[in-house]
Amino acid sequence: MLAKGLLAHLDEPADEQSPCIVVCPPFTSLQTVGSLLEGSRVHLGAQDMFWKNKGAYTGQISSPMLVDLGCSYVIVGHSEPRGRFGVPEPDFDEEILAYFGDTDAAINRKLLAAVAHGITPILCVGETLAERKANDTDSVVAGQLLLCLNGLSAEQAPGIVIAYEPVWAIGTGEVCAPDEADRVCGVIRDAVGRLFGTGALEAIRVLYGGSVKPDNAQELVGRTNIDGALVGGASLKPSDFAQIVAAAS
Fold this sequence. Notes:
Layout: H1 2-8, E1 21-23, H2 30-37, E2 42-46, H3 63-68, E3 73-76, H4 94-97, H5 104-116, E4 120-125, H6 129-133, H7 137-148, E5 161-164, H8 178-196, H9 198-203, E6 205-208, H10 214-221, E7 228-229, H11 238-248
Parallel strand pairs: 1-2, 2-3, 3-4, 4-5, 5-6, 6-7
């Protein structure tokens, strides 16, 4: 199992300088993985959630459910539930693609519900290849932040995590150049500062996600505005994930 493999590579005890490690397995594995992680330095997170606590919403997973399973983190706004896929795009027609239709308004509700239940949201923002080619990266990212963080207080803002994931770099093998990744993460910090003040700008954790691997992790997470990584495919290889954790140290 991947969680067992990761723990086997993380035999050193954590201290104040150790990076925060979160794993976000599918819903069907949360209970099993959570049991394995008990007493370890690794936190449990979910890949998504619904914003209502209860009701006739068959198939949805609520914040209280995630709390009961021991989740302390949840990813919201990942590009794929938004219907924003990397290159090449999946073979879906427009009608089917609408299934992956998370809007900024829906993501905002998820984020606020997570915070209300003591779960740290990992909010994903990022541009498609077409938006980057049109030089719209900064406006797209800032616009997503403005809508997704609506209603969050200045006191709550420092506790969330924001991940910059350029859609064109997710699962494609392409990676944003470290200088550019750092620049866009700086745009995120500036946007947070405008919304919530200097304290939030300095305290918030900003991650980079998009084809992060052991051989590029240190160069990315060593940048001024990048605090860590949202790891995709490399997290499926415990030794690679452990090397990325070491790079973040």
